[in-house]
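agent> Task received from the user: take the single chain below, predict its 3D structure, and emit structure tokens. No templates, no multimer pairing.
agent> Plan: (1) validate residues, (2) run structure prediction, (3) serialize to tokens, (4) report one or two observations.
agent> Step 1 OK, no nonstandard residues flagged.
tool_call: predict_structure(input=
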Amino acid sequence: MYAEDLSGKGAELYGGRWNSKGNAMVYTGQSIALCVTEIAVHTPLGKIPEDYVLVHLEVPDDSIHEVKKLPSDWRSFPHSNSTQEIGDRFLKAGKFLMLKVPSAAVQGEFNAVINPRHQDIKKVKILKVEKFTFDDRIFVK
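)
tool_result: status=success, residues=141
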């Protein structure tokens, strides 16, 4: 249902680590394993996510900006406003399509957030959408 939706509406409605409520953003992960981990840390134990799909994207390489300086509380849980401020500034500036950000869940891995209102959003291609089934052991109580 939402697999081909790059509007960022969910993040706009609820906010996230890298955006505050009211700011649309699309969250992506650098690998399947990282995506699974990111979902796992936000899902209660004993609840196995269903109806998930894996969406493979192609994005222009020249439109990615990396966060260089992070506040000391960037990994806090629940997330702090300081990371939301970074993401909100990125969206407002509108210079880049994507912002490469470190994963708070897996040290050394990266997520990328997409500005769905950037002029280059039309260059983002959905290459493949496939059903994804989680290993039950990840969510055992």
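agent> Step 4: summary for the user.
The beta strands are 26-29, 52-58, 64-66, 98-102, 110-114, 125-132.
agent> Done.
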